[in-house]
Write a structure and sequence with these properties.
Layout: E1 5-9, H1 21-29, E2 32-35, H2 38-47, E3 54-56, H3 62-74, E4 79-81, H4 95-103, E5 107-111, H5 116-124, E6 131-136, H6 143-151, E7 156-161, H7 166-176, E8 182-186, E9 194-198, H8 200-206, E10 216-220
Helix pairs in contact: 3-4, 7-8
The structure holds S-adenosylmethionine (SAM).
S-adenosylmethionine (SAM) binds next to α5, β7 and β10.
Length: 227
């Protein structure tokens, strides 16, 4: 039997222009595409005039669907995994699928491109030589303890945060690490892209009081960093 391949394809984090030639070529060439939400992926595929069968895999059904996908690849089909935005497997579904594919000796090929964490880091203005990526912090249990631990983390820290908790997170940073310089990157690559830079307290004063819509990445500078 001739194994197919599994491509892990990064897609834009907002601006549809941010996709590589190779990603478009790969999406055009594979037998089927695995996505999180067909509505989101169809916008991208329509933009690039790509028509492919879509197979939905999300956090809820990932373990159930893996076997079927692996079987299809083992029977020779090629498949691309995309997520709603950025690089699959990075705070997104895909880790289990890749893990299973590797165990089954299926070739896994990355088609690199955008990731919100790296984009935020690259525009933050703080040290990039060594950093920790925390993804989403736990919403309740363990959150305060983790923040306490992170206060002692010397390297740059990258956190994903939602609109509902961004102010709350800044207040927590003000409590646990008031002296750390922070870059809050909102809606990167999109129309309302904006970056707030400064100490948590300064950013809280600058941010409008109403709920600020959008997606956020928070980059916390290393201990001792001065702008
Ligand atoms: N896999 C994606 C990646 O490679 O960046 C991350 C997916 S994760 C489910 C979604 C989170 O990434 C958002 O809640 C936000 O924290 C961050 N994010 C994604 N796109 C963003 C953007 N355009 N601007 C700011 N943050 C973004």
């Amino acid at each position: 039997m001739n194994n197919g391949k599994l491509y892990i394809v990064a897609t834009p984090i907002g601006n549809l222009g941010d996709i590589t030639y190779r990603a478009v070529e790969t999406l055009k060439a594979v037998d089927f595409i695995i996505c999180e939400d067909t509505r989101v992926t169809k916008i991208l595929l329509d933009h690039y005039q790509i028509q492919k069968p879509l197979f939905v895999v999300n956090a809820q059904n990932e373990s159930k669907k893996i076997e079927t996908i692996i079987e299809r690849i083992e029977f020779g089909e090629t498949c691309a995994l995309v997520s709603d935005a950025g690089t699959p497997s990075i705070s997104d579904p895909g880790v289990r699928l890749v893990n299973h594919a590797v165990k089954k000796n299926i070739e896994v090929i990355g088609i690199p491109g955008p990731s919100a964490a790296i984009n935020a880091l690259s525009i933050s203005g703080v040290a990039t030589d060594s950093f920790v990526f925390e993804g989403f912090l736990p919403q309740k249990k363990g959150r305060q303890k983790l923040l306490q631990t992170l206060a002692g983390e010397e390297r740059t820290i990258i956190i994903y945060e939602s609109i509902y908790r961004i102010k709350n997170l800044l207040e927590e940073l003000e409590t646990y690490m008031p002296e750390r310089y922070v870059a809050v990157c909102r809606e990167m690559t999109k129309k309302f892209e904006e970056v707030w830079r400064g100490l948590p307290k300064e950013i809280l004063t600058e941010m409008p009081n109403k709920i600020i819509k959008g997606e956020f990445v928070v980059v916390i500078a290393p201990i001792g960093f001065k702008m």
